[in-house]
């Protein structure tokens, strides 16, 4: 009788999927056009400025004013799509491709309940998630729990993707930092809009994989408590691009040649170390502890071929009071099979927040 180790099977499936997506020559690798030159230097400075000098202080979000159109409406719910100009400051806006200047968002909202008795969660995109549909499917069943879903289209993705970019394969290292910084600004502004303009009683932010890293950053830097729900997420992009499967889909030789063109000679191992240093800026354990760490729930997979267990546990250790929940599976299989666990975490995270006072 042959015994199948399901954990190993999930892990192997992740590597098979990763090999097909990132190790074949069927697709362009990440960062095929190098580091990004002066954009990267500017972003390194700006990201270091993210961290408040005094614990507990964060810069206020910029209020945005989405322009909405109704996609469909029933007796119990409505779906709207909105657009707004990204709230990024001018220096950051100048570094973004023109296609990414206008942000797009989908908003699935229950009806028949006043906003101050509802919650809303902003869903951020994982790597390669170019559309609203996948995240709307995750949030859809929560409508009956009076939880609205707001889905942000990431810069560099979907209709915001630069003309020369193939799929999710960012052209420069600077694009990864730009994507993250702009996503943080836009998500914080949407949470501010939900609070001050729409009048929701509770807010949260969640995301899968890369989206979970960004969700953790947003929850950390937002000035008021929000439920923070990173799913299948590492503590840093270093894990994905320097240690995990995505290292096989990175254009290391192009990065080395880009440095050589700047009269900087490096071996491939030194190039990898430089990448590690640059991406250490995305280490969430360096970010402030969220205002309500009890409303932080990480959901991780037991046999994730992309995200090692110790990466998740580093986050929990850095944010005392947060919770880690484990689902059985790998990165890909958990994403497909465990939506109910993600929804349960969303509901539980929101339950750990107090309701805002009702408007008079």
UniProtKB/TrEMBL annotation:
<protein>
    <recommendedName>
        <fullName>Protein ABHD18</fullName>
    </recommendedName>
</protein>
<dbReference type="InterPro" id="IPR019149">
    <property type="entry name" value="ABHD18"/>
</dbReference>
<dbReference type="InterPro" id="IPR029058">
    <property type="entry name" value="AB_hydrolase_fold"/>
</dbReference>
<dbReference type="Pfam" id="PF09752">
    <property type="entry name" value="ABHD18"/>
</dbReference>
